[in-house]
Amino acid sequence: MSVTLEHVTRTVDGVPTIRDVSLTLERGTLSVLLGPTLSGKTSIMRLLAGLDKPTTGRVLVDGNDVTGVDVRRRSVAMVYQQFINYPSLTVYENIASPLRVQGRPREEIDRRVQEAAKLLRLEPFLKRTPLQLSGGQQQRTAIARALVKGADLVLLDEPLANLDYKLREELRTELPRIFEASGAIFVYATTEPSEALLLGGNTVCMWQGQVLQSGDTSKVYRQPETLRVAQVFSDPPLNIVGIEKKNGSVQYAGGIQAPATGLYAQLSDGPYRVGFRAHQLEVANGIAGRHAFHATVTVTEITGSESFVHLNRDASNWVAVLQGVHEYEPGHVLDAVLDPDNVFVFDAADRLVAAPRSS
Amino acid sequence: MARIDLVDLAHSYGGNDAALESYALKPVTMTWRQGGAYALLGPSGCGKTTLLNLISGIVTPSRGKILFDGADITPLSTQKRNIAQVFQFPVIYDTMTVGQNLAFPLKNRGVAKAEVEARVKHIADLLDLTPYLGRKATRLTADAKQKISLGRGLVRSDVAAVLFDEPLTVIDPELKWQLRSKLKALHRELDLTMIYVTHDQTEALTFADTVVVMHDGRVVQSGTPAELFDKPAHTFVGYFIGSPGMNIVPAVVSGHEARIDGHVIGLHRNYGALPAAAKIEIGVRPEFVHVAAPASGLLSATIERIDDLGRVRFARVRIGDAKFAARVPPGFSVPDNDVGLVFDPAHVHVYADSRLVEGVA
Amino acid sequence: MDKTINQKAWFLVLPVFLVVAFSAILPLMTVVNYSMQDTFGNNQFFWNGVGWFKELLDPSTDLGGRFLASLGRNLLFSAIILAIEVPLGIVVALSMPRDGWTVAVCLVILALPLLIPWNVVGTIWQIFGRPDIGLLGYTLNGLGIDYNYVSNEFDAWATVVVMDVWHWTSLVALLCYAGLKSIPDAYYQAAQIDGASRWAVFKAIQLPKMNRVLLIAVLLRFMDSFMIYTEPFVVTGGGPGNSTTFVSIELVKIALGQFDLGKAAALSLVYNLIILIVCWIFYTVMTNAGADRPEKQGAAS
After folding, report:
1. How close, in Å, is residue B23 to chain A by CA atoms?
2. Which residues does B271 contact at the CB level (< 8 Å), separation at least 6?
3. Which of A107, A237, B193, B277 is the most buried if burial means most Cβ atoms within 10 Å?
4. Which element (helix H / strand E) includes C152?
5. Chain C residues 199-228 with CB within 8 Å of chain B
6. Is there a single domain that holds both residue A226 and residue A243?
7. Which residues 68-127 of A are in CB contact (within 8 Å) with C?
8. Which residue of A221, A278, A303 is in closest CB contact with B201?
9. Is the ipTM, as predicted for this complex, more than 0.85?
10. H helix count then E strand count, chain A
11. Residue C50 forms part of a structural domain
12. In whole angstroms, what is the distance from residue C280 CA to residue B232 CA?
């Protein structure tokens, strides 16, 4: 089974929320809709589900036009950011509810509920009601209820956003296994690039109602077609600096000049914008072949495994990441270096012209 | 500014004769030095909010005492304790301007007008609120409102401690780190005792000098971010701090060796007599174990999946029944089935009944 | 949410539409028609155009005089009862317990006056105030206070006002109580920490948070008191003289007493228009007061 959106737009109160989106999703695939809030992820999901009608364009299932077909007649299941469960039913009944609506025989309901509970590790909680469960368990119940239906299309709209970060981490590592076990088409919306990377599959990068780039997650991450895609697919935010290439050397905005080695070598003369992620900026000095910058520390964010050093350089804000716990005093000036082989270069039209060779 | 002492402090919402196990906060004795920045970190239900409410006076403890600078303030009401509290959502007086909001606590205490103005100006300056002093408080954004809430606490020069109850919950993610760095800067400048409750490790580790990790009503470990990361005193701390959390696997430990699944790993220290009936485990962070080609000298594990986070790759493997995460060195091509695991002995810790065992060097 | 359009729903509305048309729209059109005629209901119509409307606004005519006087009485009455009921309702709401079983008891007691049919309310007070058999009348006269709502204008007004307060303060109290309950505990804790006195807590936290609720309460009470008919009519009949004759009572006198249907129709239309305008003003004020939206850009760093 495949689902296609064909040149779909949606305008609400004169404001276009979705602009000319075309997308095809194949059976057994996972697609991650990645983009900041209000980029159109939820609108796309609602169009796929049939909760909304596109202003123009068509929605096709297996080649058949289902635009305008009511959601109740489509094979869709949805999981939301808020844990939506029936508060008065037990976990067992919650998971069983779509099957009861379908009128399945009792033994089949029991078997399928037990399977779903096992997959989501809810077996000890089947007799409890949702309010007696933690947030993570409530969301698992919602996911189990979505899966047990056996729908062809399962939509998850930022399902982990309301969980404590540790619960989020736990559930996130289990999701790929759960998705593989199913076989339906999965669409997962998120604002966090790390979730897209962890889930794998395909990523659809969205921005202001348009699809910027879509394809294999790893490829979109390593080969962002435009600066905007690189920005959407970076957390912490992408660091950007302008350069001007002339006569075999590059002049960075803010004054540093360096020979045009590495990826800069094959560029033609002219202005470019260089984007680099936090781990591509190293806090170090005196490494041969690197381009060094002086920057002032504004704050250090410590997550335990990593420390994010926020820097101020030439009125721009950069972020570098270090392994382990490191703390720098705000106001401390340090050296940060860039490896000319390890940056993304975008031309004046913000298109990618050079990227690090993949490792 | 006050040094805070907790003496055998405990609380149960079910009444004083409830079983100790059911206490929301189990007995704790600690000292928090004056001017320190502390974070109470733990999952929902671990007792951190209970502890905060005990200190602020909203809840009277079932037993134990709280001392500010040596004086027992347990029987005192919230007003008399001279603390300031910032809540999860901004609490501001809607009908007043920003300036009037900040002046409110001082006016209530009958402070002279000139001094009120001076203090309000000083605090507004510290919090970057000076341009908004004349504006109605309701019209500002959520992060500005939280600053006003904070300002009301700081404006009293005799405030003993400032308590924060998950204050960044309603702030936009892009602005969170700005407010966080502001809090840190304020702490440095004003030398106040600050206590910050959160379930987010980044907030706790960024803000505090000392992080108090709580679990199930107990204080599990209290230390600097580096200490908590490098040497967790409890398996819960190892699991909760760090992303991904620490690997904990059962093992048989004797002397300088640990035996997992029949295979031997060298340890950095000597572990002599471990209690026989205890559950022995070793803990090691995924950052300090890496995968390599399978070899006879290395512990063998089966690959389940590789998590590619862009800047680092982690391998999720299985050793027997136990799940394990290990770093994948850059450029390493992971074989399909089995890999060998290489441990960094300096970062392998031994736990008995979930508590760290100090070996002998 | 944009449901997929289903035109069948219109057919379900049709019966309601027909009933409303029959019982409301057609009679309304009749009234409008009558308001421009001179008639005594005997099927004889003399065209009067806007004559009645001109008379209504002219205090020197009989119709205009009566209308403007009764309008004045209505406005005075509404002002008095609002001035009493709103603060009283707030005080009652503040005094009510916030949790426990006593809350249910208080709510039931508050609700009782609201459940009594309005003409029964009037009858209760009519008897209650009688100097011979009424508890209040008898007691007051026994204490030496000369109280007779039939012959004394001030006593009649006082009785009608107290009756309305007795009847409707509970509504204001219940609305304010609902508003108060929605204030999170953290506000009270913050006020404690800030050392605020009881009065300061009321002024700074409770009153602002009850703003929207109070607006609704004021709107409801104003509308109802402006349209009041049953209770004062049962108690005083509009007397003594016409001292408690409100617009509604005046209207009934003209329409059903004098059968002067043209004048009555014009009067009722103007009455309706005044109420509509007041409601519209309140609505606009309410929706604008609710638009206290914080500025998103550049408010603070």
Report:
1. 19
2. B253, B254, B255, B256, B350, B357, B359, B360
3. B193
4. none
5. 200, 203-205, 207-209
6. no
7. 68, 70
8. A303
9. no
10. 8, 21
11. no
12. 66
Kindly provide the b/e burial profile for residues A94-109, where b requires at least 16 CB atoms within 10 angstroms of the residue's own CB.
Answer: bbbbbbeeeeeeeeeb
Average pLDDT score over residue span B66-95: 87
B142-168: average pLDDT:
87
Containing domain of residue C66, as a range?
A: 57-257
Cα nearest neighbour of A72 on chain C = C4
- The H-or-E segment that residue C15 falls in is helix C9-20
3-state secondary structure of C248: helix
Chains touching B (3+ CB pairs < 8 Å) = A, C
Say which residue, A68 or C226, is predicted with more confidence. Answer: C226
Give the total number of structural domains in chain C. Answer: 1
State whether A330 and B244 contact (CB < 8 Å): no
Q: Residue A53 and residue C1: Cβ atoms within 8 Å?
A: no
- Global pTM exceeds 0.90: no
Q: Quick one: which of A97, A92, A82, A101 has its CA closest to A129?
A: A92
Choose from A339-353, C7-21, C192-206 the range with maximum mean pLDDT: A339-353
Homologous superfamily of B4-234: P-loop containing nucleotide triphosphate hydrolases (3.40.50.300)
Residue B96 distance to chain C (closest CA, Å): 8
CATH code of the domain made up of B247-357: 2.40.50.140
Which residue in B169, B186, B205, B303 has the most chain A C-beta atoms within 10 A of its own C-beta, making it the best mutation to test that interface?
B205
Q: Are A303 and B244 in contact (CB < 8 Å)?
A: no
CB B159 within 8 A of CB B2: no
The answer as to whether A359 is a domain residue is no
Average pLDDT over residues C251-265: 87
pLDDT higher than threshold 80 for residue B95: yes
- Looking at B24-33, B72-81, C20-29, which range is the least confident one? B72-81
**pLDDT value, residue A359:** 45
**Measured between CB atoms, which of C184, C186, C194 is closest to B108?**
C194
Contact A68 C1 (CB under 8 A): no
**Average pLDDT, rounded, for chain B:** 86
Give residue A199's domain range. Answer: 3-230
CA–CA distance, A88 with A71 (Å, rounded to integer) = 25
Cross-chain Cβ contact C193/B129 below 8 Å: no
Residue C296's pLDDT band, with cuts at 50, 70 and 90, is very low
